[in-house]
Amino acid sequence: MNNKLPDKCKLCAESKSDITHELFLCKHVKKSADVLVDAIKSVDPDATESSIVKLGWNTSDSLTDQSMVFLTGYILDQIWSYRKRNIRPDADRIQSELAADLLILRSSKFRNVAVQCETVLGPLGPTQT
Ligand SMILES: [Zn+2]
Known about the structure:
Layout: H1 19-25, H2 30-43, H3 49-53, H4 62-84, H5 91-106, H6 111-121
Helix pairs in contact: 2-4, 2-5, 4-6, 5-6
The structure holds zinc ion.
């Protein structure tokens, strides 16, 4: 399996592409990634894109930690799955699907994780700015 990033971003042709650019900073993914960055910064103001990709934020309790792991995995996987197809991530669609999946998570034994995610995220969906 070839996990090497291309030298140039396939979405914007930025020549110095790296994992932070690909998942957070590219102008075509930023709207999608900012939902995650804003959520994590609300629990750890010192978090950065570089620390988030390594799950390196500082949280005060395990419920918040679990919620941030869920959100990071969910949103970065969504962004990456668009990228793999050379499609610009659809931030509104990602948020709508996340809201729907959090409703499903609420009916599982991870209800508290879903509630914490929703609390940290605030309102989701295409009507939000
Ligand atoms: Zn780019």
